[in-house]
Write a structure and sequence with these properties.
CATH superfamily of one domain: Cupredoxins -  blue copper proteins
Mean pLDDT: 73
Helix content: 25-40%
CATH architecture of one domain: Sandwich
CATH class of one domain: Mainly Beta
Radius of gyration: 61 Å
Strand order of the largest sheet: 2-1-4-6
Number of helices: 6
Low-confidence stretches: 1-18, 120-126, 149-167
Length: 232
């Protein structure tokens, strides 16, 4: 009865546990036997020394580094490989003793997912696909509406026209300030002269002219007087 239960329980084991096993490597004649081994992840490898000389196991390559203690004749040492990859190892006492182990990744457990039925016929399910609507002769096509001009459309139409106009210089720009100064200079030049200033200029000119005449007369040589002028 127990054997039957064991056989029935084997298919229920996870894939990793079912693939895990134990393997043996013999150290005999100063060599590892077998020299090449391929095991699934989770497997345990046991090394047994059958030589009179001591041996050990030390990895030279691989994703995980392992090193066993020194094994005398009849002694064994085991290691469980959980990381997949290729391992190379050697006996440190006898470097000519080399071997390798390839650890395969465990296959993931597959679970059968229930298939979803996307298409249902009207007779097998309560939900039926709506029948396509048909246009009856009495139905009229919807009236076509003309797009009405809205303020937003008018604004969008006016914006390109406004954008097409040449930009005017703002009062704060340097060009506008220079033009304003030139206009002020021209306006001040076009103003009529003040009459008081004109009169002052004429009086000053007359006074200067008189001074020049007086000075010229004083510096001119006087003519000699006649005897009549002296008698008088």
């Amino acid at each position: 009865m127990s054997a039957v239960l064991t056989l029935l329980a084997l298919p229920l084991l996870p894939t990793g546990q079912a693939s895990a096993a134990s393997y043996s490597v013999t150290m005999k004649g100063y060599a590892f036997s077998p020299a090449s081994l391929s095991v699934p992840a989770g497997s345990t490898v046991t090394w047994t020394n059958q030589d009179t000389a001591p041996h050990d196991v030390k990895t030279t390559s691989g994703p995980v580094s392992i090193h066993s203690p020194m094994l005398d004749k009849g002694q064994s040492w085991s290691f469980t490989f959980t990381t997949a990859g290729s391992y190379g190892y050697v006996c440190t006492v006898h470097p000519n003793m080399t071997a390798g182990i390839t650890v395969r990744a465990a296959a993931p457990a597959t679970t059968a997912a229930p298939t979803a039925h996307e298409h249902h016929t009207g007779s097998s399910s309560g939900h039926r696909a709506p029948a396509p609507s048909r246009t009856t002769p009495s139905s009229r096509p919807p009236a076509t509406r003309m797009p009405s001009s809205s303020p937003s459309s008018a604004a969008s139409t006016a914006s390109p026209a406004a954008a097409g106009q040449s930009p005017q210089a703002s009062p704060s720009s340097p060009a506008a300030q220079v033009a304003q100064q030139q206009t002020q200079t021209t306006a001040s030049a076009a103003r009529p002269l003040d009459p008081l200033l004109v009169l002052t200029g004429i009086v000053a000119g007359v006074a200067v002219l008189c001074l020049l005449l007086v000075g010229s007369r004083a510096s001119a040589p006087q003519a000699p007087r006649t005897p009549r002028e002296e008698e008088a």
